[in-house]
Structures are given as structure tokens and as C-alpha cells.
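Priority: medium. Attachment 1 of 2:
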């Protein structure tokens, strides 16, 4: 736990912090070339936070030019890895020194509970950046067994200018997942935060500059998907795009690449992730706590949320009873109040979308043993919907809200079949006391991460990404993330005598 402030202190800080509102290109803040702005609002109150520079293709082009210059002259890409490491570690220090301010900014902008911002998002931001900074001066390249007449080297080189397009659900954390391996590898970046959540990315860019990151290396271009995301996708001088967001938008990036310069594309997309609980699962209180965390954490606005509980019938009633008990610990309300575990939905459009599933649950007549209501037009109660069939709309679509569908099964085999019956394949959890069964399940489930007797996403040392329509082209986190941002080059040297 970091040193949390009190509710009163957070409210006071929220009134006084200065919010960045301009683009950050070539080492400085600047307005959009068009002079246009868009309003950023606090999702919990509807109040205006700032008028943010509304960039478009012209700004993207300018930023790409600066990122290209910075890449080609080697001010970053050709530094010794030690030097890149030192600057990124300095950024970690500055983020820690500004932790309360960043946490409040993140909470105001996204509706996330301040306790998560302080205890998860910021520490994990720092941890991610440190891990990749520490990695880059410890990776060795390879030579190939080409015989005595030649020597061949297989070397990694930074991929070049990288476009990054981010979602709003974990603004700081997704920023870290992208910039840490990308900058550590020596690339330069043009990054678009989600329009709803631009503030912390801009603040981090400012801190990075103060840490010594050279101008043009990390450029933040705020604006909409249409005005900024699409020009990034289509730009002829961007070497790679890394994207986290919905499957529908991810698909577009493959099209953009095909229509432009065949830039590399890495996609981290949605999920409808199963939590399997078998009859022999032990320590049901812990299972229930984990299932609640899987379904409700971050308001369910989480691509790896465990939104389908697939429970074997012998244990179901007892498990649901305990889930009902632990769900009450997920208190919902003002994101700035450290006592709340859940805050506001990201915006009114998304609130309406999630609320429509609560309405659907009433229409269909499902049992709703937990929650089922909205509050103040911005909050959604943690909700459990029982009696769901896996073919039902509520079990197939990614809701991205705190809504858990309960699907009852008879056997292990049925549980696995139901778990895999989805177009997604991001994450899964299985709870059982039988080690052999847990590993059989881990093998059988087609998902990028399978956790046993817990919910989670692994950590920075383990790759994260999806099978099927949950991902494409690479993995975030671990050394695999580093590989995303490097090209592999073969250098062949003739050694024949004479
Ligand atoms: P989204 O609508 O796909 O938006 C993601 C980003 O793409 C935003 O910056 C958005 O810009 C931009 N964008 C939208 N339309 C675009 C277009 N036509 N061309 C180029 N860029 C465009 O997703 P979201 O609603 O922000 O995020 C929620 C989704 O992300 C969920 O489906 C969730 O599962 C997924 N997600 C996946 C992971 C993962 O690691 N697999 C992690 C987090 C979230 P705007 O600023 O205009 O919105
Ligand atoms: Mg906002």
C-alpha cells in the first residue's frame, strides 16, 4: 500500500492540480495545428476538466516527422543501452515523486477509484518501466551455426517509428505496457491516448522530458480515433502500430496497414473470459473473492475480466452464496473516496451500454442475486446474472462492465467446451483441487493466459495477449514485448581464406 491521502486531501488536490491540455510534440507542449480543442470531462461528475488540443492528420504528420528525425539521427536509438536505461529509471523516480498528483489526474479523468490508481496503476507503471529499462543492457543477440567458412550474426534492431493507440480503461498502465518496451528498445513514438483519458499520458511525457528523454522520442497526439488514430494507421512513415482496444477497431488497423505501407501491427483486443469452478475446488471463500475480483475489478472495464462464471452444479449454490457475500465488499461511489472499490463508468455512452445489459437481464427474466441497478446515472452496481446459457447474448458479448454471467455445467468436459465456445481467447481461470485436471484445463483452453486457483494476468515477466479474436501479431509484457519492437537482422560475413 502506498501512503494514501485522505478523501478530503484528494478532493483538495483535485481542485489545485494543473491539468495538461496541449499536445506534446518534439519535446514541447503545443496546440493542435487547427487550433481546435475538445472537452475532457470527469465521468463521475460530468464537470469539464480541460479543453484538450484536438489534433488531426496534420499534427500526426508533424509528430511522425519529428519522431523520424529523432530515430534517424540516433539521439535515442543509438545511445548505449545503459544510457537509455538510466533515463527511463529517472522517469520512474519522477513518476514516484509525482504519484499523488498522477493518481488524482487518472482518477478524475477515468472514473477509476483512487485506491486502485495509488496502489495498482502507479506502482505497476513504475514496475513495468523499470523491468524493461533493466532488461535492455542484459539481452544478448545470437550467432548461427554456419560452419567455419562464415560467421553469421542475428541481431535485434529497434523497429523505428512506432505508432501507439491506447484505450481508456487503464490509461497509465497501458501507456507503460507500450512505452516501456518500445522506448527501451530504442524506438521513437507517436502515441494517441484515448480521447476520454489524455491527461496522464501528457503528464508522463512532460516528466520523461524532464528525465532527459530527448525531444521527438515520445510524442503524444491527443484527439479522436477518426482524426488521429486513422492517420497513424495509414501513415507511410510509421514502421509499426501497437494497439490496445476493441476487436472492431483492431480490425481496422490491419486494413490501414494493408492500404498503406504494410507496417507491422500488434493488437491486444477484447475478451469474454471464462472462470471455471469445478466441484472439487477448495477454499470456497477465496474462490468467491477471486471470482468477484475477476468480474468487478476496475468496474469490469477490463479486457481480461472473468465475465463468464462456468460452475459445476454440485458446488454452485454454495459458491453463489459466498459470491453474494463478497460482492458487497465492492463498494461503489465517488472515485476520489479511498473507501470505494469501484468508481464511475468511463462516459455516458458506455454507461448506457452497460445499463442496457441490466435491462436485458430483466427482460429475459434471469435471476439477479446480486446488484442489477445503476446509481446516479454514472455508477453500475456489481451484478451477478444467474441461469445464463452460453449461447445467450449476455454470455457472448463483451459488456465491459461489472456484470457476471453464471453458466451451470455438469462435467469437466462440458466446462471446457463452454469456456472455448467464444470468439475470444484472452484469459481464463480454473479452480480445482485436482492438479492434473487443472493442467489439462490449462492445455485445453485456447487463451493467452490461464490462471489456476486464482484470477490474474501473470506479471511483467510473463507475456500477455490473446488467441483468436483477442489479439494479433505479438504479446505485451516480458521479453516478448521487447521482441515486438525489434526487427531481426542477419549479418553474414564471409571468412573464406585467400
Ligand atoms: P476502442 O473504441 O477500440 O478504442 C481504442 C482506441 O482506438 C482509442 O484511442 C480510440 O480513439 C481509437 N480508435 C477508435 N476508432 C478508431 C478508428 N476508426 N481508427 C483508429 N483508431 C480508432 O476501444 P475502447 O472502447 O477505448 O476500449 C475498450 C476495448 O479495449 C475493449 O473492447 C477491451 O476489451 C479492449 N482492451 C483490450 C486490452 C488488451 O490488452 N487486450 C486492454 C484494454 C482494453 P477514441 O479516442 O476516439 O476512442
Ligand atoms: Mg476524461
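Attachment 2 of 2:
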Amino acid at each position: 500500500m502506498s501512503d494514501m491521502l485522505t478523501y478530503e486531501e484528494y478532493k483538495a488536490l483535485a481542485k489545485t492540480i494543473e491539468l495538461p491540455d496541449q499536445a506534446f510534440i518534439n519535446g514541447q507542449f503545443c496546440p493542435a495545428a487547427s487550433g481546435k480543442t475538445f472537452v475532457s470531462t470527469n465521468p463521475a461528475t460530468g464537470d469539464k476538466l480541460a479543453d484538450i488540443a484536438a489534433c488531426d492528420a496534420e499534427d500526426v504528420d508533424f509528430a511522425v516527422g519529428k519522431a523520424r528525425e529523432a530515430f534517424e539521427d540516433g539521439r535515442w536509438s543509438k545511445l548505449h543501452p545503459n544510457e537509455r536505461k538510466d533515463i527511463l529509471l529517472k522517469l520512474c523516480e519522477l513518476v514516484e515523486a509525482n504519484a499523488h498528483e498522477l493518481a488524482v489526474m487518472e482518477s478524475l479523468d477515468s472514473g477509476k477509484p483512487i485506491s486502485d490508481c495509488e496502489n495498482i496503476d502507479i506502482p505497476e507503471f513504475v514496475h513495468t518501466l523499470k523491468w524493461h529499462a533493466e532488461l535492455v543492457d542484459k539481452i544478448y543477440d545470437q550467432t548461427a551455426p554456419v560452419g567455419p567458412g562464415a560467421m553469421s550474426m542475428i541481431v535485434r534492431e529497434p523497429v523505428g517509428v512506432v505508432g501507439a493507440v491506447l484505450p481508456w480503461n487503464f490509461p497509465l498502465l497501458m501507456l507503460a505496457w507500450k512505452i516501456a518496451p518500445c522506448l527501451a528498445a530504442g524506438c521513437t513514438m507517436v502515441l494517441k491516448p484515448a480521447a476520454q483519458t489524455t491527461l496522464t499520458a501528457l503528464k508522463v511525457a512532460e516528466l520523461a522530458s524532464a528525465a532527459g528523454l530527448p525531444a521527438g522520442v515520445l510524442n503524444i497526439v491527443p484527439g479522436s480515433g477518426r482524426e488521429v488514430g486513422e492517420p497513424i494507421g495509414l501513415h507511410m512513415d510509421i514502421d509499426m502500430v501497437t494497439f490496445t482496444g476493441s476487436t472492431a477497431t483492431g480490425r481496422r488497423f490491419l486494413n490501414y496497414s494493408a492500404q498503406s505501407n504494410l507496417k507491422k501491427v500488434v493488437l491486444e483486443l477484447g475478451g469474454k473470459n471464462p472462470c471455471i469452478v469445478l466441484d472439487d475446488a477448495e477454499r470456497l471463500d477465496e474462490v468467491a473473492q477471486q471470482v468477484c475480483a475477476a468480474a468487478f475489478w476496475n468496474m469490469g472495464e477490463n479486457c481480461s475480466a472473468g465475465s463468464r462464471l462456468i460452475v459445476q452444479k454440485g458446488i454452485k449454490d454454495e459458491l453463489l452464496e459466498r459470491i453474494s457475500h463478497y460482492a458487497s465488499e465492492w463498494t461503489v461511489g465517488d472515485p476520489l473516496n479511498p473507501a470505494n472499490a469501484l468508481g464511475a463508468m468511463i462516459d455516458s455512452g458506455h454507461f448506457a451500454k452497460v445499463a442496457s445489459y441490466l435491462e436485458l437481464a430483466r427482460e429475459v427474466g434471469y435471476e439477479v442475486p446480486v446488484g442489477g441497478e445503476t446509481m446516479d446515472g454514472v455508477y453500475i452496481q456489481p451484478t451477478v446474472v444467474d441461469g445464463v446459457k452460453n449461447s445467450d447474448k449476455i454470455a457472448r458479448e463483451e459488456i465491459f462492465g461489472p456484470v457476471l454471467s453464471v453458466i451451470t455445467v455438469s462435467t469437466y468436459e462440458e466446462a471446457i467446451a463452454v469456456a472455448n465456445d467464444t470468439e475470444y481467447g484472452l484469459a481464463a481461470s480454473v479452480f480445482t483441487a485436482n492438479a492434473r485436471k487443472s493442467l489439462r484445463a490449462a492445455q485445453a483452453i485456447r487463451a493467452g493466459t490461464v490462471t489456476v486457483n486464482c484470477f490474474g494476468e501473470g506479471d511483467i515477466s510473463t507475456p500477455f495477449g490473446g488467441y483468436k479474436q483477442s489479439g494479433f501479431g505479438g504479446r505485451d509484457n516480458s521479453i516478448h514485448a521487447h521482441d515486438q519492437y525489434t526487427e531481426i537482422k542477419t549479418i553474414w560475413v564471409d571468412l573464406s581464406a585467400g
